[in-house]
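Fill in residues.
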């Protein structure tokens, strides 16, 4: 939804969103989809599902995102007036997942430093996309 909202704002032309900014958000979401697909695929592979089928299921788990983006763009006239609320909802959902699921999970295993390093690198990549390139 966040990607669709950003492109809808760009297409509306009056929300102060440039194409480059919408593309940066899409890239950030795409980067986030890589580990998300791996989280789906790896347990399937460990349970005996073929590598190709596990990969396919991981890819398909992210298919909802472009579909939601297209639906959001098609609802341009409805989306633009409530744009700040939709963006806030999308950001809040992402923060909730990180705080509720990811951060506690990092501290459960033996390699907690690796999780913290991964989190820090991910945060740095997003800051580069948001600040340095935007």
């Amino acid at each position: 939804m966040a990607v669709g909202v950003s492109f809808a704002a760009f297409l509306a032309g009056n929300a102060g969103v440039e194409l480059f900014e919408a593309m940066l958000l899409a890239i950030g979401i795409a980067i986030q989809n890589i580990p998300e697909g791996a989280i789906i695929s790896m347990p399937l592979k460990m349970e005996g599902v073929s590598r190709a089928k596990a990969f396919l299921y991981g890819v398909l788990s992210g298919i909802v995102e472009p579909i939601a983006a297209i639906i959001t763009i098609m609802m341009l006239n409805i989306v633009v007036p409530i744009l700040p609320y939709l963006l806030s909802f999308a950001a809040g959902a992402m923060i909730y997942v990180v705080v509720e699921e990811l951060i506690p999970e990092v501290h459960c295993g033996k390699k907690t430093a690796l999780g913290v390093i991964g989190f820090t690198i991910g945060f740095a990549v997003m800051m580069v996309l948001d600040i340095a390139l935007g």
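DSSP finds seven helices and no strands in the chain.
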